[in-house]
Amino acid sequence: MNQSRIVELYRGELWECQLLESILKSEGIDCFLVNTLRSGYGPVVMAAQQIQVMIREEDAEKGLAVLSAFKGGK
């Protein structure tokens, strides 16, 4: 069984990580967020906590290109 290594692509605030997650998924890149706390009323994030966007290592090159466009506002 081939298991992919998971790597961190980006770390930031919840809103920007959710937006980046949506863009990555629309580009066909599987990803997920970590360090999020959820409650019945919606996401709760502590002030000092950073959210991480995680992707498969083999998607890193494409993910970095998407991240560059995301951060550049293109």
User: What is the CA–CA distance across the termini?
Assistant: 38 Å
Mean pLDDT: 86
Strand arrangement, largest sheet? 1-5-2
**What does the overall shape look like?**
globular
Q: Which sheet architecture does the biggest sheet show?
A: 3 strands, antiparallel
Helix content: 25-40%
Radius of gyration: 13 Å
Look at the helices and sheets and give the structural class.
Answer: alpha+beta
Summarize the structure.
Helices cover 35% and strands 31% of the residues. It has 74 residues and is α+β, with helices and mostly antiparallel strands.
Essential attributes:
74 residues; alpha+beta; three-stranded antiparallel beta sheet; two-stranded antiparallel ribbon; 2 helices; 31% strand
Descriptive overview:
The protein has helices at 14-26, 60-72, and strands spanning 6-12, 31-34, 37-39, 42-44, 51-56. Strand 3 and strand 4 (42-44) form a beta hairpin. The strands form 2 sheets. It has a 3-stranded antiparallel sheet, with helices on one face. By secondary structure, it is an alpha+beta fold. The radius of gyration is 13 Å and the shape is globular. It is 35% helix and 31% strand.
Protein topology:
Layout: E1 6-12, H1 14-26, E2 31-34, E3 37-39, E4 42-44, E5 51-56, H2 60-72
Antiparallel strand pairs: 1-5, 2-5, 3-4
